[in-house]
Amino acid sequence: MLTTAAASTRGARKPEPRSSVAPIAVDIDLASGASDLKTRDRAWWSDFAWREGRVEIRKTAIRLKLDRDLIAEVLNWIGYLAILAVAATLARIRRARPMAVRFAPDQPRPWYLLRGAALWAGVRMTAAPAEAAATFYFDDVTAGPAPLSDGGRAFNFACTDISKSHVAEVFEAVFGYPLRLDPTTAVGDIVEKSEKNGVHDGAIVRAPLTPRPGYVYQRLVDTQDDSGRCQDLRTPCVGGEPVLVWVKTKAAGGRFAIHNRQVSLRDPGEIFSAAEMAAIRRFNARMGLDWGGLDILRDRQDGRIYVVDVNKTDVGPIIALSWRDKIRSMNRLAAAFERLVAGGESNPCEI
After folding, report:
1. Which of 277, 3, 199, 123 is nearest to 114 (CA)?
2. Which of 57, 65, 6 is nearest to 197 (CA)?
3. Which end of the chain is more exposed for a tag (fewer CB within 10 A), N or C?
4. Percent of the chain with pLDDT over 90
5. Are 309 and 292 in contact (CB under 8 A)?
6. What pairs with residue 295 in β-bridges?
7. Which residues is 103 bridged to in the sheet?
8. Could you report how far apart the first and last alpha carbons of the chain are, in Å?
9. Sheet hosting strand 28-29, strand order edge to edge
10. CB of 106 closer than 8 Å to CB of 39
């Protein structure tokens, strides 16, 4: 439910088209001054504001262009939420023992994958520690301390830094080869990205260059096919284990785009070797990631995989998936979620 951030080259970045009529700057904040409240205390629509002609996500300050693509994604999302409501109801009915989980400090909104997996498994959400089988650290920030644990089972509490530089540092330590580069000594095309989570402002720049504050510089991983389209391997992981892979194909020139040309569901064993799967598990353990999505790229030149992003508050399932693959994905994720929380047999809703 985000917008496209196109690739560009330093010194030759494409400017956004300008209207011949000066826009009227109107800011509408749907939170009504409640910016200091946690999400469990606010209606979901208060997460958004209208600023300078764009929809702003207040938590991250990301601004989305309200265009036909965004409207289509919202309508698709409404259909998914209807299916989720049916699956959650059936799973709750079928569940032999009620189960509840708690999220702190924030409550995941409807578009977060973690919430969807819990509901799909028939697990309800509670704010009371005494009722919860487990507590998840849930805060859509790049880096920050987890809240104090109540002493029960806790997940993602060790995952407190998902900045691009920390991800690259852990990646190199685990996989044994680098992703991050020194832009002052590198030569040729490299990638420039913000440290922040969820900004999607990646750009191809020409090195050597002077680094910008707040940005990291990485190897340009070649994922293009002969037609110029690029592939990303979004890999949701539960308990440190890759559960499935969404193979995202992006249009030529849309390497850093949010919108996907096509997405297919694959098993991790079809995509990664046994050695790569073991390395991904070690990487997740070093990151403290019990639940989250990895963005992985495979370089067509050297055949290696590169973990370029970690998201402990991932959104999903991906809009461009077929409805069949959305349902299959949620069945798998719900089963993995329940195994993580309960450690026993799972009974997700099969629809």
Report:
1. 123
2. 57
3. C
4. 64
5. no
6. 234, 309
7. 136
8. 25
9. 28-29, 48-51, 54-57, 62-64
10. yes
Q: Is 296 helix (H, G, I), strand (E, B) or coil?
A: strand
Both structure tokens of 49 = 């504001």
pLDDT in tens, 161-179: 999 999 999 999 999 999 9
- Element housing 237 (H / E): strand 230-238
CA distances (Å), 176 to each of 172, 185, 214, 300, in order? Answer: 5, 21, 25, 18
The tens digit of pLDDT for each residue in 215-242 reads 999 999 999 988 888 999 999 999 999 9
CB 154 within 8 Å of CB 144: no
The residue type at 286? R
With beta carbons less than 8 A apart as the criterion, state whether 98 and 123 touch. Answer: no
Task: Give residue-wise pLDDT tens across range 73-95.
Answer: 778 889 999 999 999 999 999 99
287: left (phi over 0), alpha (psi -120 to 50) or beta: alpha
pLDDT in tens, 190-223: 999 999 877 778 899 999 999 999 999 999 999 9
> What mean pLDDT is reported for the chain?
84
Q: Is the pLDDT of residue 121 over 50?
A: yes
Q: Residue 225 corresponds to which tokens in the numbers above? A: 């096919």
Q: Assess contact for 103 and 126: CB atoms under 8 A.
A: no
Residue 40: predicted pLDDT: 55
Q: Is the dihedral of CA 255, 267, 330, 147 positive or negative?
A: negative
Residues 6+ apart with CB under 8 A from 146: 137, 139, 156, 157, 158, 160
Distance CA 116, CA 124 (A): 11
Specify the pLDDT at position 202: 87
Whether omega for the bond prior to residue 317 falls within 30 degrees of 0, making it cis, is yes
Helix (H) or strand (E) holding 217: strand 215-218
Closest to 1 in 3D by CA, of 58, 59, 57:
57
Beta strands 100-105; 135-138: pairing state:
parallel
Inter-residue contact 237 to 294 (CB < 8 Å): yes
